[in-house]
Amino acid sequence: MKKLIMVTGFPGFICERLYRGLIEDDPATNFILLVHPTQVEKAQHLTDKDERVTILPGDITQENLGMSEADKISLQDKVTHFFHLAAIYDLAVPQDLAYQVNVIGTQNVNRFVRTLRSLQRYVYFSTAYVSGTRTGRILEGELDKGQTFKNHYEETKFEAEKRVAAMKGVPTTIIRPGVVVGDSKTGETIKFDGPYFMLRFLDHFSFGPVPYIGKGDEPLDVVPIDFIIRATIYLAKSEQGIGTFHLTGGATYPSQEIYKIFSRELLGKEPSFYCPLGIAQTLLKIGPLRRYLGLDPEAVAYVYHPSVYDSTQASNVLKDGGIHCPDLIEYIPNMVRFFKEHRNDPAMRVQVR
Predict the structure, then answer these.
(1) Residues of the signal sequence (predicted)?
(2) Which residue positions in the chain have pLDDT lower than 50?
């Protein structure tokens, strides 16, 4: 049977890269891209009228994903693989919006996926941070451990993953990425959030000494987008790829070490004094200062959270495909170079509230 992949979340960064990776992996693949009506024009531009692609306007928060009954029925015997990436990823998202998109939207997708009679694999993009406030080593087989959450993004992705994991009889791959950054080879990304907030902060210290913010002994689990794409595609077609997988970097380096290397690459100097974390967090409550520094308090919480995401199951499957996460230290220069080239592009700078 000819492969027909249906995808939600296009033209988001991860989804757009996944689409290109899937085409490269199998050029004969056809696609149904379920695209929110507000993103159809952008999606058409990115797919460049590719004959293998059908752009279907839809909305996962709506009944039947916003599709017509005719479209829904026509797809039930054709779709072989379903990749669900559509979600609200903003760490400061309001609860109602996060629940509507991440939880209700996933429930609607699950309902549709159950009707697909030719389905070979359902791939759901979760996050390693469904672990919430848990500390220590987090295993791939663990989900609900009574944890609380740092924000509504984590909480609603946890609730959504519970609903996906509860589906019976559906061949499902759950992907839990760490903090995703740009391409390890080119440095390319589409926005400077996550660890890039460190670079945005450091960019203010071209002159004078550079501070550390807190001790930063906690590991920060960073993974490049090219690894995420290669690993996801391999897991989606592997017989061993059913289950839950941490696509993480192993948190080899503490955040302080990453920050120091960022400073050296960006500014040519290392931090020389400490600003206690408590003082920094108090200062970040001052809106104008927070916006000037370009430092998101929600992102700071991830830098100082002591969790390690065990990826034994993912590593065991991926090693058969020769896939492993690149060493962060090796590609930091590419990240910083791309940041320098695009630091003044307003489209790249996530708005700090």
Answers:
(1) none
(2) none
